[in-house]
């Protein structure tokens, strides 16, 4: 497995802090109100100022790849116009430092921090954002394409649509239900436009990172429950994977999308790899009376749970990759681009070790090309603020002291083959 990528993942908004430093503009998440205990990410892990320390931690860990995101508002404070040189310089230094110590940079261009001014113009409901995203891609690629190993235009577009625009638990906090579906098409279109731009800058490898979940019917013998599971999978899984990999949308949603001539060809750009972010399966049954959605969510109780109350099902990862390969016979090499769990432990985190051991075993059984633990550091966990801890490294947010957990040392031993 000499070419296997052993990695960790983070995202800019969750760790960087430094809201007002270096010319950064505001994002939709800066002032998003429904956050646990009124937490905010204005400091977070202060990675913007402490990135050298974090690169040293990765060197100690022994990873050969680091997946991180670039904050669009650092590059273009309003989401359009000329580059903010100071913001781009920050990532240029980070990439150089990673390359110098033999860690491959894996860059995500968008991990949910839409510039606030673009959101005021409609955000992902506005088709023009795809062109703005292409412009932004060009600014970053022009500086970094010569050193970045893997490029991911958009992280988990399903979560942007479902949580940000459909039910409103994430920024920008809109509860549009099915009226949120245009955002899915515009996210896919932005992905395709970004891939085109990255190719024009001779990017080494371009893929995606989709959040995937096996959709389980509560009663597998019930046609109504099976239909509910299929409907959920269309919205969560196939609304994003199908057009990128096959150039078409699932029949159940295609007529609800603002597709224009040429869009699907733009979206279906050849990919060098496919990224799977996996956390848990989802169980569904036929919708109850009055539910405007075509399914009810059902708790999965027969498995242990994480601190987020998510069921721990390692076999769901290999199941999902198997479903993807069956549905898409020409699926490119697969990376597990996120896999991790939240637990409240300080340093001794045997539960996290058990979780990662099971999921890494499932990933290797599925013959993937790399595995990225979410996350290197404890971080700002979106609407849950600092109440959930995903890090291999514990962060004391008052002092910013970083302390590797037992899982950090376990992962180091796995990587080194001890």
List the helices and strands and how they pair.
Layout: E1 5-9, H1 12-15, H2 47-61, E2 65-69, H3 72-75, H4 85-100, E3 104-110, H5 116-120, H6 129-144, E4 150-154, H7 157-166, H8 181-200, E5 209-211, E6 215-217, H9 223-246, H10 251-254, H11 263-267, E7 274-277, E8 282-285, E9 296-298, H12 315-327, E10 334-339, H13 350-365, E11 370-374, E12 393-396, E13 401-404, H14 406-416
Parallel strand pairs: 1-2, 1-11, 2-3, 3-4, 5-7, 6-8, 7-10, 10-11
Antiparallel strand pairs: 8-9, 12-13
Helix pairs in contact: 2-4, 6-8, 7-8, 7-9, 8-9, 12-13
Describe what this molecule looks like in 3D.
With 418 residues, the protein is an alpha/beta fold. The model has no long low-confidence stretch (mean pLDDT 98). α7 (157-166) crosses α9 (223-246) and α8 runs parallel beside α9 (223-246). It has helices at 12-15, 47-61, 72-75, 85-100, 116-120, 129-144, 157-166, 181-200, 223-246, 251-254, 263-267, 315-327, 350-365, 406-416, and strands spanning 5-9, 65-69, 104-110, 150-154, 209-211, 215-217, 274-277, 282-285, 296-298, 334-339, 370-374, 393-396, 401-404. The radius of gyration is 20 Å and the shape is globular. The protein has a single domain (5-416), classed as Alpha-Beta Barrel (TIM Barrel), CATH 3.20.20.80. β10 (334-339), α13 and β11 form a beta-alpha-beta unit. It has an 8-stranded parallel β-sheet with strand order 4-3-2-1-11-10-7-5.
Query: What CATH first level would be assigned?
Result: Alpha Beta
Q: How much helix, percentage-wise, in residues?
A: 25-40%
Task: Report the mean per-residue pLDDT as an integer.
Answer: 98
Portion of residues in beta strands equals: 5-15%
End-to-end span in angstroms? Answer: 15 Å
Round the Cα radius of gyration to an integer and report it. 20 Å
Number of strands: 13
CATH homology superfamily: Glycosidases
CATH architectural name: Alpha-Beta Barrel
- For this structure, the CATH topology is TIM Barrel
Count of helical regions: 14
Give the class from helix and strand content and strand pairing: alpha/beta
């Amino acid at each position: 497995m000499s070419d296997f990528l052993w990695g960790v993942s983070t995202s800019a908004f969750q760790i960087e802090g430094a809201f007002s430093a270096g010319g950064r503009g505001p994002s939709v998440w800066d002032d998003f109100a429904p956050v646990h205990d009124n937490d905010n990410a204005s400091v977070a892990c202060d990675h913007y100022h402490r990135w050298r320390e974090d690169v040293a931690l990765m060197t100690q860990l022994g990873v050969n790849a680091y997946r991180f995101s670039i904050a669009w508002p650092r590059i273009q404070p309003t989401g359009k116009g000329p580059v903010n040189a100071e913001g781009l310089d920050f990532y240029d230094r980070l990439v150089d430092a990673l390359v110098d110590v033999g860690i491959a940079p894996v860059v995500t261009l968008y991990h949910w921090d839409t510039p606030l001014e673009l959101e005021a113009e409609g955000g992902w409901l506005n088709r023009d954002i795809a062109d703005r995203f292409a412009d932004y891609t060009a600014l970053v690629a022009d500086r970094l394409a010569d050193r970045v190993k893997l490029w991911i235009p958009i992280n988990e577009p399903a979560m942007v649509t479902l949580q940000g625009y459909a039910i409103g638990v994430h920024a920008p906090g809109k509860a549009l239900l099915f009226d949120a579906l245009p955002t899915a098409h515009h996210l896919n279109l932005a992905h395709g436009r970004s891939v085109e731009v990255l190719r024009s800058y001779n990017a080494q490898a371009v893929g995606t990172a989709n959040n995937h979940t096996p959709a389980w019917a509560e009663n597998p013998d019930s046609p109504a429950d099976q239909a509910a599971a299929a409907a959920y999978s269309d919205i969560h899984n196939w609304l994003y994977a199908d057009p990128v990999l096959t150039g078409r949308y699932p029949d159940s949603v295609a007529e609800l999308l603002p597709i224009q001539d040429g869009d699907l060809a733009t979206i279906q750009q050849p990919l060098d790899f496919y990224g799977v972010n996996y956390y848990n399966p989802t169980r569904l049954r036929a919708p109850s009376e009055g539910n405007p959605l075509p399914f009810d969510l059902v708790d999965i109780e027969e498995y242990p749970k994480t601190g987020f109350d998510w069921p721990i099902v390692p076999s769901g990862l290999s199941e999902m990759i198997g479903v993807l390969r069956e549905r898409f016979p020409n699926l490119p090499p697969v990376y597990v681009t996120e896999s991790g769990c939240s637990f409240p432990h300080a340093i001794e985190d045997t539960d996290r070790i058990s979780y990662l051991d099971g999921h890494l075993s499932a990933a290797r059984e599925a013959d993937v090309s790399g595995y990225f633990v979410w996350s290197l550091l404890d971080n700002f966990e979106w609407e849950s603020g600092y109440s959930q801890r995903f890090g291999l490294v514990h962060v004391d947010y008052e002092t910013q002291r970083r302390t590797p957990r037992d899982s950090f040392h376990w992962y180091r031993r796995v990587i080194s083959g001890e």
